Amino acid sequence: MGRAPCCDKANVKKGPWSPEEDAKLKAYIEANGTGGNWIALPQKIGLKRCGKSCRLRWLNYLRPNIRHGGFSEEEDNIICSLYISIGSRWSIIAAQLPGRTDNDIKNYWNTKLKKKLLGKQTKVQQARSASCLSFKQEMKRESENYRVPGMVNQASDWTLLSPPVMPLTSTNQDLYLRDQDSIRNILVKLGGRFSDDHPQSSTTSTTTNPMNFRYPFDVSFSQDHQLYEDSMTILSSASSISPLNSTCSQTNSTTHFSINQVGGPNDMIQGLDAFQAELSELIYSNNGFEGLYGTDNMVGGSSTGTSSVESSSWGDINSLAYPQFVSGFEPCQHQSIP
DNA sequence: AAAGGTGCCAACCGCAACTTA
DNA sequence: GTAAGTTGCGGTTGGCACCTT
């Protein structure tokens, strides 16, 4: 036996809302508020609609200051960054974008942003495949030059097995850390706290990744404890799948290649769905969001004429962008402080 | 011009969390 | 403590508009 329906479906109109229905609902809510009961609201105003439908219509369409379409690059960046860190938590992502609804963002992601990024990804993958191939060919030539009769040539073996790798450079490290910082900033703004901000915390658990980027988490205070834990799980997974687990460096005529065989949490990919993982890698391999979108498109880039932040990291950009979003914006409603 | 395909978006559905009695 | 009612969320779908053949 299922639960009772929230309304009498036989007497409820479905489908698109008429202007009259919109006007009725809007006028009533603006005059009286929702009354704290969406289920009873349609009967009060004589609408043959389900309460859930009224709520949805109000939140997604009739509510003041709703914006539709025309997502900016900075909004794209925020959506991508949050999607990587917390996944498809559209309501949380929407909370960072005033005037946007979770439904709008979800639709935008599914219809445009995802494809846009996949398009970028294809190009990157092609470029990477090409560079990987030429690298392999070069290695093969080199290995043939140094072939020793009677010895197994290991270089030719591993070149066949090696995945496309991103050379680890200080620049990549910086970008990686800067993106981590930006995600961290967002998560902190969402109510979390990192224990390295509060070193005296006794509930800290610390994990270290191969490059000593630490992500200790203190969940002793959080506006949304579960959200924060989830985010941290995903974030720690994301950090572990970064190409930083693989290194490739070249000194003079010697090529060093290694993949850190890390067990436990460091080789986790769970917690990110395939697209999230790919997107995360794409961004890192693309030199961060700047590489993905180009600095011209970033907040404060040349298009806005504020050249002082042209070289800003995503973390900087986020901190610049966020305050203007916050003003006049409602915080998440169902946050609770323990 | 018509048919079929595709993209987009508003709205629906079902489930889980939360609140209340 | 628990059952019923309500809210909020994310996934999915239906239908319209536009594009391609």
TrEMBL record:
Its main location: nucleus. It is found in: Nucleus. Residues 9-62, 63-117 form the HTH myb-type domain. It holds the Pfam family Myb_DNA-binding. Keywords: DNA-binding, Nucleus, Repeat, Transcription, Transcription regulation. Signal peptide: none annotated. It comes from the Eukaryota. PROSITE patterns: HTH_MYB (PS51294), MYB_LIKE (PS50090). The keyword Methyltransferase does not apply. Transmembrane segments: none annotated. The keyword DNA-binding applies. Residues 9-62, 63-113 form the Myb-like domain. SMART domains: SANT. This is Transcription factor RAX3-like. It comes from Gossypium arboreum (Tree cotton). The lineage of its organism: Eukaryota, Viridiplantae, Streptophyta, Embryophyta, Tracheophyta.
